[in-house]
Amino acid sequence: MKILVINGPNLNMLDYRDKKIYGTKTIDMINKELMNQFPNVDFEFFFLFYEGEIIDKIQMYVKNKNENIIINPGGYTHTSVAILDALLMCRNVVEVHLSDVTNREEFRKYMITTHAAKKVFTNIREQGYFKAVEYLIDNKYII
Ligand code: DQA
Question: Is 117 in contact with 84 (CB distance < 8 Å)?
Answer without folding.
Answer: no
